[in-house]
Design goal:
The structure is a single chain. This protein is of the alpha/beta class. It is built from seven helices and eight strands. An eight-stranded mixed sheet has the order 1-2-3-4-5-6-8-7. Helix 1 crosses helix 4 (91-104) and helix 5 (107-120) crosses helix 6 (142-161).
Length: 258
């Protein structure tokens, strides 16, 4: 799990490729311990967050699948994750380290470190109940989806052995190309029951749709044009679990964009 050299090399490439104004910042952290953050009052303080990469390396943005991407990539430039990497000096190096850990550690190694944090959180005022993948970035490949599922499965098993409630994993993705057809259905069915994938404007386990505020949510349809069993996003994940679980048919969560 030695990641120092890989981290420095990866960050140097990222720095040179994007000429980031905060690229001179060096993260003062132990590269061999899981780089994670805990949720805030909106996401929920009971949530551990781990990114597979940064917004600067987001595959959905580069593939033209995310409407929030930088305007140079055809988006509307409203990506909050990308803005954070420009305005907060520590953000890009930290997420770059997370990318290196994701690429260099096995699913079991990541799960072991996540569970250690989860186990310690029993003493927190708010114990960890959820893990969110990718507050920034997205799945790079099919393998990333499968690896994320393995991490969730390993953590579930560790929770059961320790007599703890099973922690639920969830994420949002614009990678509609990974979930098409029979292959996409098989990919979703291979994930453990404690891992929920919310497709952004397409159906994965669930579908998360963003509508302009002038649209009537009551008349909303899913990405196939069919009327759906809809739930309105509260814009406060600490008070809602709709995106964190899925049933047999899944649900559609509607958010009005201001």
């Amino acid at each position: 799990m030695q990641t120092t050299a890989a981290y420095k090399t990866s960050f140097q490439i990222l720095k040179n490729g994007f000429k980031h104004k905060n690229a001179q910042v060096v993260l003062n952290a132990n590269e061999n311990k899981l780089a994670y953050t805990l949720g805030n009052s909106k996401i929920g303080e009971d949530t551990l967050i781990f990114n597979m990469g940064s917004a600067h390396t987001c595959p959905s943005a580069k593939l033209g699948l995310c409407d929030m991407a930088h305007k140079s990539l055809g988006g509307n430039g409203k990506c909050y994750a990308l803005k954070a990497e420009y305005f907060y000096p520590q953000s890009l190096p930290f997420r770059t380290l997370q990318k290196v850990q994701w690429e260099n550690w096995t699913a079991a190694e990541i799960a072991d470190q996540m569970f250690a944090v989860i186990f310690r959180s029993r003493k927190f005022k708010t114990p960890i109940r959820f893990v969110r993948f990718n507050e920034a970035g997205d799945f790079y490949t099919f393998s990333c989806v499968m690896k994320a599922g393995k991490v969730a499965g390993y953590v579930a098993e560790l929770c059961k052995r320790a007599g703890l409630p099973v922690v639920k994993f969830y994420t949002y993705t614009h990678r509609s190309d990974l979930f098409k057809g029979i292959g996409g259905a098989a990919l979703l069915s291979s994930t453990p029951s404690n891992f929920t994938i919310n497709g952004s404007n397409f159906k994965a386990h669930n579908e998360f749709r963003v509508l302009e505020i002038s649209r009537d949510v009551r008349d909303a349809k899913d990405s196939t044009g069919k009327k759906v069993n809809k739930y309105t996003c509260l814009d406060d994940c600490s008070k809602c679990s709709l995106c964190k679980v899925h049933g047999k048919e899944g649900i559609t969560i509607i958010q009005s964009r201001h």
